[in-house]
Fold this sequence. Notes:
This protein is mainly alpha-helical. The protein is built from 3 helices and no strands.
Amino acid sequence: MADTSLPKVVVGTALTPEQKKDLLHRLARVEGQLRGVQKLISLAAVPSDCDGVAQQLAAARKALDRSFVNLLTSSMTTHTAGATSTADAAERAKHLASMLDKFA
């Protein structure tokens, strides 16, 4: 039975199909966590309920951060493996470092 909850993985050179599948699964879990947070917020009745919301938000943020790290490490592996020379690998690594600096 095919997993229809995730988008179709398109073959390309940015990430391997396995890397894409792993990242999509991670993001689906984060999406589920955020839905749970929304439910907790809608059901919150007393101030102590905010503790549970904060805990779940922190967990979702950590999972999203982990997905970002996973994307970068997968990109480093994939992009530098396709380099045609040491200079090309250095240029690709420089681009990934600028992504890290810009978005982290």
